[in-house]
Design a protein that fits this description.
The protein is built from seven helices and ten strands. By secondary structure, the protein is an alpha/beta fold. α5 (143-155) runs parallel beside α6.
Length: 219
């Protein structure tokens, strides 16, 4: 589904590449965890795979599309339709309700919010276990509930791949466990997941663990 070949990414001021001639294939339906120490390159790799940033060298294919050489318009479409990304911080707007935060995902489609959008947002909130809190603002939600809203917002447009960058990093263990269980449920329904995490226990529940050090895969 995703093929990365000879990826290189360097940052100014760093003596070593963040990603160093890395190859990686991800199959449809996999739940892949990327682990490693801080500075190992795992988040940079995730951002390249999800088309948030471009590598300095190498290619990434999503099926037959070379996303590294694709136009910015096509990359934006890819992120809006095929790829979804969630982060450690949920970036919810505090003055909007849960369902309104989910509906934000439709704003870049340049189509006015309609009944179908609202129905999709409501269905997604129900899927992540928050159908009863669609009118709650973030300040009234727990950290785990806020992350569930962020996941619903990311997936409401029908993405086939979820990239999660430390989705449990700001949560306590019990709440983090509930988010991992949610991700496994979504994966069983066919969603491909690529997750960066510092937590080996969470990583070991996935179908494949990729360990990184110094910009390279070491396992």
């Amino acid at each position: 589904m995703i093929r990365a070949n000879s990826l290189v990414k360097c940052y100014a001021g760093s003596e070593k590449p963040a990603v160093d001639h890395l190859d990686l294939h991800i199959r449809q339906g996999e739940f892949v965890s990327i682990v490693g120490r801080s500075g190992s390159g795992k988040s940079t790799l995730l951002h390249i795979l999800s088309s948030l940033i471009k590598p300095d060298a190498g290619t990434v294919f999503f099926h037959d599309l070379d996303i590294c050489s694709a136009s910015e318009k096509k990359r934006n479409h890819l992120r809006g339709k095929e790829f979804a990304v969630v982060f450690q911080q949920q970036h919810l707007l505090p003055y909007l309700t849960a369902i309104e935060n989910v509906l934000l995902s439709f704003l870049d489609s340049f189509v006015p919010i309609n009944k179908q959008h609202i129905a999709s947002a409501r269905k997604m909130l129900e899927l992540v276990g928050l159908g009863h809190k669609e009118h709650s603002r973030p300040g009234k939600l727990s950290g785990g509930e806020q992350q569930r809203v962020a996941i619903a917002r990311a997936l409401v447009r029908g993405a086939r791949v979820l990239f999660a960058d430390e989705p449990t990093g700001s949560l306590d263990f019990a709440t983090g466990t509930s988010i991992i269980e949610l991700l496994h449920g979504l994966n069983k329904d066919g969603l491909t997941i690529v997750m960066v995490t510092h937590n080996d226990e969470f990583a070991n529940t996935s179908s494949r663990v990729i360990r990184m050090a110094d910009g390279k895969i070491v396992n």
